[in-house]
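Internal ticket #5521
Category: modeling
Description: The requester needs a full-assembly model to guide mutagenesis choices. All entity lines are attached below as received. Residue total reported by intake: 1266.
Assigned to: D.W.
Attached entities:
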Amino acid sequence: MSQINRIAGGQIERSKTLNFTFDGKSYTGHPGDTLASALLANGVRLMGRSFKYHRPRGPLSAGSEEPNALVELRSGARQEPNTRATVAELFDGLEAKSQNRWPSLAFDMMSINDRLSGFLAAGFYYKTFMWPAAFWEKVYEPIIRRAAGLGSMSTLEDPDSYDKGFLHCDLLIIGAGPSGLMAALTAGRAGARVVLADEDFRFGGRLNAETHEISDMSGADWASEAVAELSTLPNVRLMMRTTVVGAFDHGIYSAVERVSDHLAVPLPGKPRQTLWRIYSKHAILAAGATERPVAFENNDRPGIMMAGSLRAYANRWGVSVGDRVAVFSNNDDGLRTAVDLQAKGVDVVAVVDSREGGALLPGIRHLRGAQVIDSEGRLGLKAITVRLANGKTETIQTTALGVSGGWNPNLNISSHHRSKPHWREDIAAFVPGEGGPVNLSAVGAANGAMSTHAALTSGQSRALDILSALGVTAKTTALPKAEDAPISIRPLWYVNHGKGRAWIDQQNDVTVKDVKLAHQENFTSVEHLKRYTTLGMATDQGKTSNVIGLAVMAELTGRSIPETGTTVYRPPYTPVAMGTLAGRSRGKEFKPFRHTPSHKWAEEQGAVFVEVGMWLRTQWLPRAGETHWRQSVDREVLATRKSVGICDVTTLGKIDIQGTDAGAFLDKVYANTFSTLAIGKCRYGLMLREDGIVFDDGTTARMGEHEYVMTTTTANAVSVFRHLEFVRQCLYPDMDVQLISTTEAWAQYSVAGPNARKLLEKIVDQDISDVAFPYMGAGNTTVCGGLRARLFRISFSGELAFEIAVPTRYGDALIRRLVEAGQEFDAVVYGTETLGVMRIEKGHVAGNELNGQSTALNMGLGKMVSKKKDSIGMPLSQREGLNDLDGYRLVGVKPVDKDQPLNAGSHFLEIGAAPVAENDGGWLTSMVYSPHIGSHIALGYLKAGDQKIGKHMRAVNFLNKTDVEIEIVSPHFFDPEGERLRG
Amino acid sequence: MIINHPILGPRDAQEFVYLGDESLIARPDGLAPDAIGAFHDYLYLRNNPAGEHRELWYHEQGDRSWLVVTRNTVTHVITKVEMARDVARRMGRSK
Amino acid sequence: MGNALLKPLTALGRDTPKTIEIGGYRIVERFDVALASLATRRGREKDVAKAAKAAKLPLPVSARSSSTSSYGAFWLSPQQWMIEASFSTHEDISAHLKKIFSDAASITEQTDAWVRFDVSAPTLQPLFERLCNVDLPETPVGYAGRTVIEHIGCNLIKRGEGEVTLYGPRSMAASLLHVLEVTARSVD
């Protein structure tokens, strides 16, 4: 029994058979099928269970608006929940599973909810799970999560990749139905750059689903010919399987291209989907329209669907949803379903037409003035009950019912900037209103032009307008001939009959009664209605249900539909996978890595790396036998302080500052003075924000009369550069200053320790004795017999230290040379941990102290802020509030008991004081183990800390549950007089 | 958004970093007797109009120009883009 | 210049530059170009133009690159350019340029701040439309501008219809090449 509902015709490739499974059962279909069309062809109507009541459901539609037929596609790591069977393109080997049911689709235990519906009406979450609050986390939430889930995700990592891309065009056309194709032909032939995007895997839109003729050929053939012509135009880009999901400012649109979703597995190296950012000068919304149902009692049985979808399954896919078919419509368009199916030999048992009077369809039982009031069939439609014009009811046996309540233009994209849709009585639908995205206009059915002729006309004329705006001349060609029938609708939103449930939003199980309840409880605004009833939420965002819901509310409140209004449309138009938004930025590719010049060497040595921003820096370099990081770090510290250590400091930001006003410029950006710095010297500089808080610090060297090199912290390299450009361009636009970053141009190593000079004397070509190259010296030099280099005598470690820089390409060779030359001194290479230990031993501030809330005064550097000159941050650093004598001051901290560990983040408390906020004295910012002191040491900000040196306090940490007696000391733990670095 | 850079033409706003009100150009004299008060106003008293706003943007992923962009904060319509340096000169910041 | 004791490494940490071919795409790492930035000092526009002309050094208009037999140059920002020269003859490029421009311009060595990849293919659009927002087909030959490729700020120069030079931060060379490779594979 295969494909029992397959009938003649359609755009499927019958010569090829595709095998697929649904809930483990095997079926066959053809290329061109969707999962839904193939299942329907196989006689499978039941495809899912509803979200709340677990009602048996089949597809309501044949497109992306589908609320019911949500399945899990594929398996394993590629399993994807909530996929609409109506748009899932069939491929050989496709595996699909129904969801939201247990143990099986036909017998679902949770359908007990359906019997409990009296308790589960709109707002039940808010009413039921209110009290007690403690029940939320432990009781209610797990119950709701178990019961209310849709599909289940694979918890495995997605094995596929996702691309991003950028497109540029004169005209973006959203939708390739008759209006979109006509617009594309018009603009494409004139030579404009056109992007034509359509979510379907076949261009043509409704032309593929209808029997309309255009120019004496079938609409589908006309579409194929149009596409064939467009594909010969190099200025036209045809993007199939591409959904425009959002409109953004100034002609930017985003679109998702499903590159490989129609394949079992993407081809090697190929992405599964691509997220496009489209820059357009103009855009045309030709997204067509979506049919909406009429709500009646039990209108949700599998087999009941939109009339246009029933017709699409027959015309496009050669599928009759049932052996006996009926139609329920309030407009002429719905009648076409009966005509088309009858022409295909399907038994059309009745057309229930809610409109009274008028012509009858020939050869079909056309019941005017009648309404469908109920249906039968537990897992699929068996019969409908019809109330005839004369008031009598009749039961009609049928296995498929097509319902048409009219068509809603797909105006979503036009409303992404909050433009209010405009109500048109003649078609009983909203069309795009004023104030939509600039240079976007809707054509065809998306603009309420419902006939094929109107679609073609509006597509052409809009394209001509745009070409004229672009200054492109175009020839007007005669429009192809097409039908121009009016839709002749008489609105009917729901059938007023019975006490059962008439479904409006099948995805969220919202009924007419729920809307009435919302009204009764005064949730009458559409936004409240949505939140209270969940109408229009979830994957379909109410594409088939919103307008009915608000029409019912309009009736209840006595307002008009336009007065009631719609909820706000937001991107995305259809669901977008998180992976698509992430693109390639995930896992190790989340962000780029920056490698230091010594990286290769360090890797060879087995270095442990740490991420510092995007940089990978050596954290420490374990040696054989070292099993704990502290062993390595202690060794590195001791060896450096005893003899010499080498550290890669390339990551510090370096900014080349030149110009005749460079010195004056530095005086503006630094709190201390630089214009007086001698050539060949460097100085520590403190940079403030305008609010007086410390922004950054570093040393800046004067390399020549008008040449300086500034260093910044690794973290602030980019923001300091931006700030300097602001000062240069916006504050002092005529200063003669030029800036360029040179961070990456130079490989820079710190060589520190008592033997630093001896080691460097083997490398540097010049005299670097204390006389020739004193403390804070700086200058250009050469190394290794002539290679240009820069040398700075600066120290972060407190030792006699130099920083030597060579062009980056020589950085690898230089570290090898330094290590080799250092062998006789037992030189070590150290990482960021040792750097941290030594700077804390020395009391130097770093990131933890430069925390964006501390002043120079807090750091004990208040005297550095010169009041003799105007610099950024100086004025406000003088504010009273920032100059509290009892404010935070940087102090050193030692545990009284050397074996007690300290924790950064601990708070200072007086001995015996209760650990409450009002007794809080400040906090420990940075902590390390100092092998010299033989205990943990820390820096911290302590209130009036400068007056508390020598005092005993406590460092209390609730997170680590520690309470340690400490001694407040000077932050300069090591060589406070600085004798070593001047050695 | 698209910012029509005076030198480079239309560029995606993603390439820019936003700072704030154009008035940040008008930095007071830090050595004036009332400097603290003037700086307080300069730094903290800003207009936040629903409508036309002249604001500073930095073309960080571009030519590093600071721009003054006149933008309607409600509609995002940009009516004017100028080099901040030229605006600063007009505001008398040439030394 | 070079140095017998110090062996240079490319930005990818290799002795020699790398060339990769994926489908029709050819990605060539260049290691033979010296770079320096040149910025006009205030009021010295005429001096800079005169010196550049005498030295046959091009100073292209905004968003453009150009070259002569000895120098290439591309625009960076108002009154600022990047100058390209052969590394073998101009390793100490800033010394060369300082001789030409004296104190009329600020000159800064940039050679090793960048990794350079020359990317070529009969048509580069499929690759570059997935890398950055530059509208390559509509961009004239000679275009030069900054753009972002997977978070990496790069200078892009369109040398010809099928030839693009990318200068990316040297420290991110491996990440940049990785992006070029995976993207080329996705469109080959």
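Resolution: model delivered.
Comment from assignee: Strands of chain B lie at 2-5, 9-12, 17-21, 52-58, 66-72, 78-83.
Ticket closed.
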